[in-house]
Structure formats: structure tokens, C-alpha cells
């Protein structure tokens, strides 16, 4: 069921968005060569407990997961692109790390993801990450009243294809509210002027993810991590946004400005210093 949120409910959701944004900003800035994925998860867990928030992941057990997730953040490395299960792995120079993080604050959920290279970055990895970020901004730019879901999807797919990547439609964005995953589904490619009409109060997680040389994924033996079928690199960018009368409200906006288009609205107290 698709639910529309009132302006007052959207203001209540800003606390979750700010917490998710601040946590991802801190984790991405602090991660370095030699860090262990389990330590990243532990730091995210510490921040959740300190804030009195609630993880959306730790007990999460959907049909596509082999068991309850058991951790509070997804850490996908190199060929891993989605649902990366934290485990005893030390990050090496040049690793491409995607962090996907969702929490509930006072009953409202926000969900966001960021990809970074640890240590020295290969140009191909930077291009891949940049494309997901530009695709995210394009999708959000299209998230305006009167447009349709297909306009968001087509905008994402257009950026990806122009950069030479293929899209995968098995996993994409989704509705967000009292729970992490709700209706509607937001594909990462589609046809303009098709699908659901976008209305004020609709809250979506828009999340382009791409693989360098394929659009096929496999599930790893841990029962969660989704990786490129050909072993190539993956990147993932995501924001939680709301459709409003004034434009797309980016609830998980970070100060770096990544993924935020020029028609976006920022939550109260959030400012962008650069992109």
C-alpha cells in the first residue's frame, strides 16, 4: 500500500534523515586501509545506541536473505554491490566500499548509501561511483509533482547508459515511511511518462547501483551479499526523498552535496558546502 505523508510528518522524518546522513558522512570520512568491516559495523551500532535510534537491518529477514541480517549496516566491497554482510575482512588499498544504512528515529525511517574508494583510487572506480551519483541526482531532479515513476527511472537509466553501463531491474528504490521497504518499487530504468503519478507526500528511497561490465548479479555464500556475476566492481548511491509542492525534499542530504540536484529542497538546518 502506498501512503502519502503530511507536511508535519515529513518534518518528523527529518531527524532520521539527518542521523543517517551524519553517520554515513562520518563513516566514509574515517574509513581507511586496514580497517575491518566488523569494526565499521560496530561503530555504526555505537552511533545508533548513542542516539536512541533503532536499526532497520539487524532483525531484517526478507525472502531474498538467507537468515536475519544480524548487523546494522551493509558493507559491500569491490564486486559486492548490495546487501554486503559485514564479516572479518580487512580493507586493502584501492578497495571500493559501499555503505548502505537505514535506521528508525521516533518511528520514522531514512535510508541512504554512499560508495568510496579506500586509499588510492583507480580512475575506473571513480567513474563508476560518479555515474551512480549523477544518476541519483537525475532521478531526484525528476521527482516532482505531475511526473510519473517512469520519469525517475528513465532519468537514472539515461545517465547510466550514456556512461556505458547496463542497468539491473531486480533491485531498486522503494517507498519509505514507518518501515524501510514499502510500495512503490522504483526501478533504475524505465519509460518516461509511464507508471505511478507522483503526488505530494510520497516518500521514496532512490538508489542507483551499477556494475562496471555486467548487469548480472549473484548471491554470495553468506546468503546476503549481491555481487557482480563477472567479478567486476560495483557502486551504489542512495537518498531518501519526499515529493513536495516546492520540489524534491532530500531527507538524507549531506553537506558534500552529492546526489542533490539544483531543484532540491534541504531539510531545516542542513546546508550544502560542495559537491
**SSE string:** HHEEEEEHHEEEEEEEEE
- The name CATH uses for the topology is Creatine Amidinohydrolase
Mean residue pLDDT:
97
- Classify the helix fraction into a percent range: 25-40%
Major pleated sheet: 5 strands, antiparallel
Name the CATH class.
Alpha Beta
Beta-strand segment tally: 14
Structural notes for this entry:
Its cofactor is Co(2+); Zn(2+); Mn(2+); Fe(2+). Its EC number is 3.4.11.18. Residues 12-245 form the Peptidase M24 domain. This protein has helices at residues 7-30, 37-51, 123-141, 149-162; strands at residues 54-55, 74-77, 80-82, 96-105, 108-117, 173-175, 182-186, 203-206, 209-211, 217-219, 226-228, 234-236, 239-244, 247-250. By secondary structure, it is α+β, with helices and mostly antiparallel strands. The chain has one domain: Creatine Amidinohydrolase (Alpha-Beta Complex). The protein has a five-stranded antiparallel β-sheet with strand order 7-6-8-13-14. Strands 1, 2, 4 and 5 form a four-stranded antiparallel β-sheet that branches. A three-stranded antiparallel β-sheet has the order 3-11-10, with no helix packed on it. The longest helix is centred in the N-terminal third of the chain and has 24 residues, at 7-30.
Give descriptors for this structure.
275 residues, Creatine Amidinohydrolase, 4-stranded antiparallel sheet, 4 helices, metalloaminopeptidase activity, Creatinase/aminopeptidase-like, hydrolase
Amino acid at each position: 500500500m502506498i501512503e502519502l505523508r503530511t507536511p508535519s510528518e515529513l518534518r518528523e522524518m527529518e531527524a532520521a534523515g539527518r542521523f543517517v546522513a551524519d553517520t554515513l558522512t562520518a563513516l566514509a570520512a574515517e574509513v581507511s586501509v586496514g580497517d575491518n568491516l566488523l569494526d565499521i559495523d560496530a561503530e555504526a551500532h555505537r552511533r545508533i545506541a548513542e542516539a536512541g535510534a533503532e536499526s532497520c537491518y539487524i532483525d531484517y529477514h526478507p525472502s531474498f536473505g538467507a537468515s536475519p541480517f544480524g548487523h546494522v549496516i551493509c558493507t559491500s566491497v569491490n564486486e559486492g554491490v548490495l546487501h554486503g554482510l559485514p564479516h572479518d575482512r580487512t580493507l586493502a588499498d584501492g578497495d571500493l566500499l559501499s555503505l548502505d544504512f537505514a535506521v528508525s528515529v521516533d518511528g520514522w525511517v531514512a535510508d541512504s548509501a554512499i560508495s568510496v574508494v579506500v586509499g588510492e583510487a583507480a580512475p575506473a572506480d571513480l567513474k563508476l561511483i560518479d555515474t551512480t551519483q549523477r544518476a541519483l541526482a537525475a532521478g531526484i531532479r525528476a521527482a516532482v509533482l505531475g511526473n510519473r515513476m517512469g520519469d525517475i527511472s528513465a532519468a537514472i537509466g539515461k545517465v547510466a547508459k550514456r556512461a556505458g553501463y547496463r542497468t539491473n531491474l531486480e533491485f531498486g528504490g522503494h517507498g519509505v515511511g514507518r518501515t524501510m521497504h514499502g510500495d512503490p518499487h522504483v526501478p533504475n530504468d524505465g519509460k518516461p511518462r509511464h507508471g505511478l503519478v507522483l503526488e505530494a507526500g510520497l516518500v521514496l528511497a532512490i538508489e542507483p547501483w551499477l556494475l562496471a561490465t555486467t548487469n548480472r548479479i549473484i548471491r554470495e555464500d553468506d546468503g546476503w551479499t549481491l555481487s557482480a556475476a563477472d567479478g567486476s566492481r560495483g557502486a551504489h548511491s542512495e537518498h531518501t526523498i519526499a515529493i513536495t509542492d516546492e520540489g524534491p525534499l532530500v531527507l538524507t542530504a549531506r553537506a558534500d552535496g552529492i546526489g542533490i540536484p539544483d531543484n532540491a529542497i534541504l531539510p531545516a538546518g542542513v546546508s550544502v558546502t560542495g559537491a
